[in-house]
Design goal:
Blueprint lengths: L8 E4 L1 H5 L9 H14 L3 E5 L5 H14 L6 E7 L2 H10 L6 E8 L2 H8 L3 H18 L3 E6 L6 H14 L3 E6 L6 H14 L7 E6 L6 H10 L4 E4 L13 H10 L1 H4 L10 H12 L20 H9 L27 H10 L7 H17 L5 H11 L8 E8 L7 E7 L5 E7 L3 H13 L3 E10 L8 E9 L4 H8 L3 H4 L4 H6 L1 E8 L2 H32 L6
Parallel strand pairs: 1-2, 1-8, 2-3, 3-4, 4-5, 5-6, 6-7, 7-8
Antiparallel strand pairs: 9-10, 10-11, 12-13, 13-14
Helix pairs in contact: 2-3, 2-12, 3-4, 3-21, 4-6, 6-7, 7-8, 8-9, 9-10, 12-16, 17-21, 18-21
Length: 555
């Protein structure tokens, strides 16, 4: 093993643990865009997914491995339960990557072994030994996690970790799966393993902390202080239940307090703000204003005393600069008279990389349209615009026109025009309790796919009456079954029956819209969510075909 003294690896699990959070589902194209951005962020390892969970997950991991897993890119990891089928599916999914990792896990807490796995401690050790050995026979880089380590008997935890080391694990991840421990306890657990497990010095010890008690970041940093040299975390701290340790908080704590921790990461911190916003827009979960590092208020000062101090010297009340996390403080003011060169220069200063001239031209046209509606366009407006354009939401239906009327004593009424996948044009109108309700009803009359609106959120990107509004919505499909998905693709009913109708019906989709007109932003957000819902049906059928053709399995 190469020496990693002083270097803390950042293992991003946004696309695996993060996406498992209810409503955080992403399309394949969105997962790819997040993976590309994580590569720009320069994370060490991307846990791309859980291939055995579904053919769709396998296909996503495989595509990420193919596109992002280059020689100069991150390690691509796939999660697998401690059984041969899971490990084989994980191994096949990550094949295109230059740098591969299999991450397998087995619970070690008595409560998990007794009530979930129905295994004795001896049986658990035998499984760990056999499955880590098998994973290592396939892949040189194997990570093992003793799930629920935080509630495991310390002596048995040492024994389980020792078995994994002897079987060939190269990284040992110690998860506080249910967010139970305090920082002192978690740090002591890491230190105890270092002191009592033979051969562990040849491995990288990792943290994986959940935020049920609000101390996931503190626990992760306590692990680093006690010898951990990998941190598993997610963008914006998303994940199961209360979420995971927040990547941006862990990274900036180490960056800002480097002398205290005595370590560093290789993260390009100027990409943090953009990565945060990208993930937020894809999953439809807004970043709270008071969120550390990337929240809207993270570098805002309203108190007179604070403002006075900052104006005299920024470090009086700021321990890091906004520029460090990708918020460009040297503002180039853009407006309707700004040209392509100025706009391209601004994008470059913000670290925005576009794939083609066509993509730049489309974004520039959107920018000019925004300038016609808004006198002053700043970094936040542009970042929101870029984020919206990078969603890559498939436009099965394109929103072509929105017209509404509403007011005191009036019946809210809306008319929409949609363009279908083959150029068909539909126009419909409806009334509602308000203009947004009327628009959504008119859209539903055309699309005819029942769904439930779970969440509707509006946020002003900037200040002033001409502020750009961003709207996020979350919807849950109602009543869909696999046969409907097959009909969408022209597939046979027998092909579709492999899919779970129950899972389809319960899936949650998010949408994101940006516009100076809040009602129009709401319409765009709803269409984005609907298009994701419709595309997911098609994607499941395609993923089945791709995964099974590549040997995913038939069991």
């Amino acid at each position: 093993m190469e020496s990693h003294v002083g270097h803390v690896r950042i293992f991003d699990t946004t696309l695996r643990d993060g996406e498992q959070a209810p409503g955080c589902t992403m399309t394949l194209e969105e997962k790819l865009e997040v993976a590309r951005q994580l590569a720009r962020l320069n994370v060490d390892i991307i846990e791309a997914g859980f291939p055995a969970a579904s053919p769709g997950d396998w296909a996503a991991v495989h595509e990420i491995a193919r596109e992002v897993g280059t020689a100069d890119g991150p390690v691509i990891a796939a999660l697998a339960r401690a059984n041969r089928d899971d490990i084989e599916k994980a191994w096949s999914a990550i094949q295109p990557a230059v740098k591969k990792r299999i991450h397998t896990f087995m619970s070690t807490s008595d409560i998990h072994l007794e009530h979930q796995f129905r295994k004795t401690r001896a049986e658990a050790l035998a499984i760990i030994r056999e499955m880590v050995t098998y994973a290592r026979s396939l892949c040189e880089d194997v990570e093992f996690s003793p799930m629920d380590a935080g509630r495991s008997d310390p002596v048995f935890l040492r024994e389980a970790v020792a078995v994994a080391v002897a079987a060939g694990a190269t990284t040992l991840n110690i998860p506080d799966t249910v967010g139970y421990l305090t920082p002192d306890e978690y740090g002591a657990m890491i230190r105890d393993l270092y002191e009592h497990v033979p051969g562990i010095e040849a491995c990288v010890l990792s943290t994986h902390c959940h935020d049920d008690l609000g101390v996931a970041v503190a626990n992760s940093l306590a692990g680093v202080r006690n010898g951990a040299r990998q941190v598993e975390c997610t963008i914006n701290g998303i994940g199961e239940r209360a979420g995971n340790a927040s990547l941006e908080e862990v990274v900036m704590a180490i960056h800002t307090r480097g002398q205290f921790y005595g370590v560093r990461t290789q993260i390009n911190t100027r990409e943090l703000a953009r990565t945060s916003r990208l993930v937020s827009s894809f999953i439809g979960v807004p970043v709270p204003p008071n969120k550390a590092i990337v929240g809207a208020n993270a570098f805002a000062h309203e108190s007179g005393i604070h403002q006075d101090g900052v104006l005299k010297h920024r470090q009086t009340y700021e321990i890091m600069s906004a520029e460090t996390v990708g918020l460009d403080g040297n503002e180039l003011v853009l407006g309707k008279h700004s040209g392509r060169h100025a706009f391209r220069t601004k994008l470059h200063a913000m670290g925005v990389e576009l794939e083609s001239d066509e993509e730049f031209q489309h974004l520039f046209e959107r920018f000019k349209d925004l300038c016609d509606r808004k006198k002053r366009v700043d970094d936040r407006d542009i970042l929101a615009l870029v984020t919206g354009e990078l969603q890559h939401t498939p436009e099965i239906y394109k929103l072509d026109l929105v017209q509404y009327s509403s007011g005191l004593g009036m019946i809210p009424t809306a008319t929409v025009r949609l363009i279908g996948p083959e150029g068909q044009v539909w126009i419909n109108s409806d009334t509602g309790t308000g203009p947004v309700d009327a628009i959504y009803k008119a859209i539903n009359r055309i699309v005819e796919r029942p769904n439930e609106l779970l969440e509707f959120s509006i946020n002003a990107i900037t200040e002033g009456l001409d502020a750009v509004a961003e709207v996020t919505v979350r919807i849950r499909e109602q009543g869909g079954v696999a046969e409907d998905a097959a009909a969408d693709m022209g597939a046979s009913t027998s092909t579709a029956t492999v899919l779970s109708g129950k899972r389809i019906a319960q899936q949650i989709f998010s949408g994101y819209g940006v516009h100076t007109d809040t009602i129009v932003a709401a319409a765009h957000a709803y269409m984005a969510a609907l298009n994701k819902m419709l595309a997911a049906r098609q994607e499941r059928i395609k993923a089945e075909a791709v995964a099974y053709a590549a040997g995913y399995g038939t069991d």
